[in-house]
Amino acid sequence: LSSGFSDTFNIDTKRPKIIAGSKEAYFGYTVQQHDIGGKKWLVVGAPYETNGQQKTGDVYKCPVTSDTHSNCTKLNLGRVTLSNVSERKDNMRLGLSLATNPKDNSFLACSPLWSHECGSSYYTTGMCSRVNSNFRFSKTVAPALQRCQTYMDIIIVLDGSNSIYPWVEVQHFLINILKKFYIGPGQIQVGVVQYGEDVVHEFHLNDYRSVKDVVAAASHIEQRGGTETRTAYGIEFARSEAFQKGGRKGAKRVMIVITDGESHDSPDLEKVIEDSEKDNVTRYAVAVLGYYNRRGINPEAFLNEIKFIASDPDDKHFFNVTDEAALKDIVDALGERIFSLEGTNKNEISFGLEMSQTGFSSHVVEDGILLGAVGAYDWNGAVLKETSSGKVIPLRESYLQEFPEELKNHGAYLGYTVSSVISTKHERIYVAGAPRFNHTGKVIIFSMHNNRNLTIHQALKGEQIGSYYGSEINSLDVNGDGITDVLLVGAPMYFSEGRERGKVYVYTLRENHFVSSGALIDLQSYQNSRFGSCIAAVPDLNQDSYNDLVVGAPLEDEHQGAIYIFFGYKETVLKKYKQRIAAADLAPGLMYFGCSIHGQLDLNEDGLIDLAVGSLGNAVLLWSRSVVQINASIRFEPSKINIFTKDCKRNGKDATCMSAFVCFTAVFLSAHFQTASFALRYNATIDERRYTPRAHLDESGERHTQKGLVLLAGQEHCDRLQFHVLDTADYVKPVTFSVDYELEHPENGPMLDDGWPTSLKVSVPFWNGCNEDEHCVPDLVLDARSDVPSAMEYCRWTLRRAPPDCSAFTLSFDASVFVIESSRRRVAVEAVLENRGENAYSTVLNISFSRNLQFASLIPKDDTDINIDCMTEDKHPNKKVCNVSYPFFRAKAKVAFRLDFEFSKSIFLQSMEIYLIANSDSEEKESTKEDNFAHLNFHLKYEADLLFTRTSSLDYYEIRSNSSLERYDSIGPPFHCTFKLQNLGFFPVEGVTIKLTVPVATRGGNRLLLLTEFMVDQENATCNIWGNTTDYRRTPTEEDLSHIPHLNHSNSDVVSIDCNVKLAPNEEMNLHLRGNLWMKSLKALKFKSLKLTTNAALQRRFGSPFVFREEDPSRQITFEISKPEESQIPIWIILGSTLGGLLLLALLVLALWKLGFFKSGSRRRAAERER
Questions:
Q1: Is residue 1129, in this structure, part of any structural domain at all?
Q2: Over the stretch 435-482, which tens digit does the pLDDT of each residue have?
Q3: Is the N-terminal amide bond of 166 cis, ω within 30° of 0?
Q4: pTM of full prediction above 0.70
Q5: Do residues 315 and 170 both lie within one domain?
Q6: What are the DSSP calls for 336-381, one per residue?
Q7: GO molecular function: any one (predicted)?
Q8: Cα(1057)–Cα(993) distance, integer angstroms
């Protein structure tokens, strides 16, 4: 079972309905959902569809059924023909844009490249077909379509009287001039009347609709003849009858009169010409002078009459030729004069909209249809509006505010897409994109007025050249209050990270102004995706009451395409997409999936909005799934675990039995599913994060179980799970009961709401055993004593001195001190912790100690069952945290324990501090907290463990009175004295001075010693030498020392040497004295025996941390010097003594030999060899 939160969205990707069509026709380029009387359809544009020999494009209607395959039917809108227009429908891209009108279930299908013929030009004005709810063509919408400048009704009035000769030349003229005309629907119509005495219609204006047909008819016109030339009658007949039969309203009326003589009804001409002027008939008159020239008649009167017939000015409307054969010479000139009439009807609208491509985009609003015209006004573009009361075509000047004249040649393509928003004043405001404006793109937000002016409220500009910012626009009313919340602008060619990834900008509405609010976030991949090529605002997909958004990226995944679904929330859209649907996940072979998107209807009658997505050659239907929220809860009976009262047995052991009620309630977000049901499965686990659970389920004896159930919408379902709790060491932290749940069949049926939890963890606490209010009030008492002796105790027990002496010893220190014996390596603390109140939960003993101590152990005493477990924090090595009788220290409980600390080898301090404090999670009264701690803080003195020794090269010297035997004269024998200090203790010794006093002369000024060298073998030792070493008299005086046989520092002149002692453990220090006895003085002084004592004493400096076990730690080196009395021994005594000694030795050897002393060794060696 998965736990945590669901991260899926509710658009089903497993069962898409794919409607196939022609890839060559670009079937699927546009899609629209359609509803007719409850029956659902999909309208699909195929802008390259063929009709006959022409690639007109078309629209298909596809029924939405449960069948695997849908049979789509082409509506054949490409065959719709516009009357009175010479149209060209090949490549007109019908279906390039589609827009549905949900009010009357009609839709609009546009052909932006539809064009029509005007004279020698083809104008691509574009057009749209409105289709009613029954898929029948209703009307053509072509607001940019203007009448051609060649929209003329031309009546040729031929004189067919007998005087015209030869007639064939008149026929040739007629045929040639007709070939100059652009005859066709929406352009020129030609009718011919012939007169003489009578007037007849040769053919009417609407008889023929092509040059070919008219020429063929003209070639068969025969001369009617007649003896009279009734020109006034012929003109009046053409004006009153010929222009009425097949004449078109609004067409320019042109009359060409060809005659060879004065009229017989000339009095009527004035009235006839006046009536023609009133009817705005432009008259061209051609005088054929063949008859006059052949007979030599003056034609002046005839010419004046013809000029009167012709419109003014005569130089443009009057022609004369010498004879009938010369008519061919005026054909070109007459044609040019007629076509110069085109300029007379020119205005800015017709001049600016010829290539407008109206219908490139379309958008249905309340009072009509907005149409984008990207080619209008020299490709700057425009937005046109078709309403039931007419069309609104803004003037070019209306756009100059945002599209200045100097940029008109850049081709902004305004109208590439059109949309609208609803302002905070509930006014409909239009939005249009111009993706090529200044190369970076622009979007304008504007209102359109019936006087052909615009009010541009705001303009938004793109940031990157070539990004096509504004090529796709849509707006979203997120919260459904009728006011637009978000405007989205696509820039599908936005270049990022080396690819055309695309970008969709988000703008939020603030005080009728759109403010930038970042951009949507697509899949972070390096590919040309064209994200933002299509943006569709759709009703609430996930049933959270907020409308949503779908964005297409048709080039993603190597042009397979993908769509992104974004949540609406409150008054904005969440920037991170919630679901990405890739074409590759739906079906193989889909390409450009996401080029069009529409989602407004419930297509499969399940009450949920579904999506229609276009791709190349296919239309894809994606179904929404219902969304459900599962509310889970757990309750326990009883509500707490009572470990003090066991109410059942499990596996032969006393236990506390409990019941857990696991309940689920399903809430469907859509009202359509209030009677639905679905299967659910769940896992229940006890103490899931513990290695060993403290409770087990009765059913299995395990910690977890798995179950399934069926949930009905809105109904609670509960399962009872019985479990039991055995003895455990942890009664403080509650037992956790975890439930993970998921849908039994996640591929079918409802989806769990996005972000909805799929797990639940509830804890059941232990009863703490305290009063009814379950509020435990302990009373912890802590007492501690150390085994470190005070100075008095040290003096009496260790030094074993009398009380008066110990009092003096104690007073010798500047503060109350404790003494660390030289043999001590540890400090012991005896402590007692007692709880005189109620249970104390999570009781903790915090131990902190000074840096010169290291924690060694904590040992409970008296065989107690109370455990004390200590932990060390690496960050705080001088602290210990100990749990006392976890999880709770029982009421009235008491525990004695011993703490041992070792002295640090690396840190030496003159004090020692140990701080103990006991507390618990239970709230103790402030009045009883004073005895919760013990603070041991000792000022220390350390017993120095120093080995103090001395050596000397000279102990005794005898001064010979006989000068012949004396080796020394003035300077006597040398001496080398050494005093050695060794630190045998655990602590470094410092704050101690060794003082040497050397007697060098008598008080009478006679030198005794000559010091030649003093040396200390310890680096960085500092010594000071005091006293006179050289300034003594050269010649000794007589001085009697017989009454002072012992000279030392107290009765002689001395040299003092002070050295600071600083010894690490196991380090030694040697002090060397070298010199000579001063014989000149010693011989002169009067004494029999003289002792010279050098003294070395250890002294504590002020504040020294060390004490000495000896009262007087000093060492002496004494030189004994004797001067014996003179006496003479006879030589014979010396010789006799020598001989007697030799004789005695011989007798002793003989006696030993007799006793066998010298043989016993050889016998022993023989016996050993035998063995």
A1: no
A2: 999 999 999 999 999 889 999 999 999 999 999 999 999 999 999 999
A3: yes
A4: no
A5: yes
A6: HHHHGGGGGG--HHHHHSTT--EEEEEEEETTEEEEEETTHHHHTB
A7: integrin binding
A8: 10
